[in-house]
């Protein structure tokens, strides 16, 4: 009986902690001022200081252990279901399973949110730079498409003229840190200390499930899939660092990544971010006016179109039945974390860029 009461007490405390986190997260102003600006920076910097110096990803091994644990539990459940004694042990096993399930989910929820997840409820970058995010017109969307084509063509011509080679992985990560050193001159709150950007050991899997990078909240590491075309990687690295800095929502991480990459002195970063932003903006325009979307695509240099073809071919060569399932599951995850558009939340960076251009006259 004492053992049973102890288990109930543990679950009760954990559930109360979950409710406390949930209620705290309801107030975006408190989240911004107390958690995102005061508590989280110390957590994130500590993790990066602890694990950033390692040449491999601790977080990737954490995920490996996590999935092995889930697999073990799944096979144990199958073994129990197929057992002849299952009727005798059913009640005992069910209680044990429910306890383990509640213990696992509550601890996971608490740690995920304390280490990073509460940032989904913050006021964010728009509040920090006083950027009003409003509905934009079709003409404004066309204007941004036009400006992005100019940026893409100009940076691509510079790369070709100077015969600039894409950096290797370690140089790329160092250049990402330099990009944030440049942007911090204008936006001091984007200061990035204790760099911790790693090559994903699951890059091969990411190529078949559609992810370019991810953030490990348990270790503070930013992961980049370095198996994808080179021109996409600089912006991906900047995007993942934005997650490290506490910008959890994908459109915000895209926008912060844009601010950093566009501030870089390295043309490979500028080209990378503008090609990515054009993908989002042009896709948004296509849904509103497909004729105009095709018009702006035709303005791109043939060498730029070759890069897009390379990316498209890479995706076609890595098609799998896992990707739709992964995208669907991840879309549900995003919707449950203040991003009702799901996967299309990435595209919402277009509204941020339009507002930024209207306010500052630059992109």
Overview of the structural elements:
The chain is mainly alpha-helical. It has 2 domains: 2-121, no CATH class; 125-360, no CATH class. It is 69% helix and 3% strand. The chain has 15 helices and 3 strands. The protein has helices spanning 2-25, 28-51, 58-82, 86-115, 125-128, 138-161, 169-183, 203-209, 233-244, 250-263, 267-288, 290-298, 302-317, 322-335, 349-360, and strands at residues 197-199, 213-216, 221-224. A 3-stranded mixed sheet has the order 1-3-2. The model has no long low-confidence stretch (mean pLDDT 92).
Indicate the topology.
Layout: H1 2-25, H2 28-51, H3 58-82, H4 86-115, H5 125-128, H6 138-161, H7 169-183, E1 197-199, H8 203-209, E2 213-216, E3 221-224, H9 233-244, H10 250-263, H11 267-288, H12 290-298, H13 302-317, H14 322-335, H15 349-360
Parallel strand pairs: 1-3
Antiparallel strand pairs: 2-3
Helix pairs in contact: 1-4, 6-11, 6-12, 7-9, 7-10, 9-10, 10-11, 10-15, 11-12
Question: What features would you highlight for this structure?
Answer:
69% helix; 363 residues; globular; three-stranded mixed sheet; 15 helices; mainly alpha; 3 strands
């Amino acid at each position: 009986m004492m053992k049973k009461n102890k288990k109930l007490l543990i679950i009760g405390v954990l559930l109360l902690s979950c409710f406390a986190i949930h209620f705290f997260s309801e107030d975006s102003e408190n989240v911004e001022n107390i958690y995102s600006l005061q508590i989280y920076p110390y957590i994130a910097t500590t993790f990066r200081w602890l694990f950033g110096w390692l040449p491999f990803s601790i977080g990737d091994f954490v995920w490996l252990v996590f999935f092995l644990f889930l697999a073990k539990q799944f096979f144990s459940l199958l073994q129990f279901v197929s057992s002849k004694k299952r009727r005798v042990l059913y009640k005992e096993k069910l209680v044990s399973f429910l306890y383990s399930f509640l213990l696992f989910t509550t601890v996971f929820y608490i740690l995920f949110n304390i280490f990073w997840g509460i940032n989904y409820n913050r006021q964010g970058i728009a509040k920090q730079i006083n950027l009003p995010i409003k509905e934009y017109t079709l003409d404004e969307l066309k204007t941004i498409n036009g400006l992005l084509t100019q940026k893409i063509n100009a940076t691509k011509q510079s790369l070709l003229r100077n015969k600039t080679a894409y950096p290797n992985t370690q140089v790329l990560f160092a250049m990402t840190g330099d990009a944030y050193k440049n942007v911090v001159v204008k936006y001091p709150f984007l200061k990035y200390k204790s760099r911790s950007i790693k090559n994903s050991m699951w890059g091969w899997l990411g190529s078949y499930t559609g992810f370019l990078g991810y953030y490990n909240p348990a270790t503070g590491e930013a992961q980049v899939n370095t198996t994808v075309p080179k021109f996409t990687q600089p912006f991906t690295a900047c995007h993942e660092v934005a997650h490290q800095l506490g910008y959890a929502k994908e459109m915000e991480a895209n926008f912060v990544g844009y601010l950093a990459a566009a501030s870089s002195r390295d043309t490979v970063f500028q080209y990378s971010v503008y090609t990515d932003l054009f993908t989002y903006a042009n896709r948004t325009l296509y849904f509103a006016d497909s004729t105009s979307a095709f018009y702006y695509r035709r303005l791109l240099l043939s060498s730029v179109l070759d890069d897009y073809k390379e990316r498209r071919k890479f995706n076609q060569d890595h098609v799998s039945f896992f990707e739709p399932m992964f995208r669907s599951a991840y879309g549900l995850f995003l919707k449950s974390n203040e991003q009702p558009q799901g996967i299309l939340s990435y595209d919402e960076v277009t509204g941020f860029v339009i507002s930024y251009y209207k306010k500052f006259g630059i992109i």
